[in-house]
Amino acid sequence: MCCRLQLYVDCVGGELTANVVRCLGLGGRLLVCGTLANSPLTVPLRDLMMPGAAICGFLLANWLAAQPSLRLLDALREVRRLMVSGMFDTEVAETFGLDQVSDTFAAATRPGRTGKVMLSMSKP
User: Fold this and answer.
1) CB 3.0–4.6 Å: which of 35, 67, 70, 76 could bond 13 by disulfide?
2) For position 51, which CATH number holds?
3) What predicted TM-score, i.e. pTM, was given to this entire model?
4) Quick check: 1 pLDDT over 60?
């Protein structure tokens, strides 16, 4: 049974996103901001009609182009403040070289893993 989501931000698309649409609650919204799956989104219209849900897209370049200069300056200052505060820091669990792709995949899919698993272009 699905919980009834009010808002979901998705950067994958494809089958995963189609499954999320089925979980949207009354008036729920799906914000699409990426296409990592690189496959079409196929959704039965009833899955949108019944809960009165909606799908909308977001592209940062479009948003930036529509902003006044002072708002952009404020946004950049806020991003800088968050960066300095460590808000965007990410724990890296393991780093592998290109010759260790199989090990990288195994580490990334290991249950209970904490931190990101990285594939390095420069690591021997």
Assistant:
1) 35
2) 3.40.50.720
3) 0.64
4) no
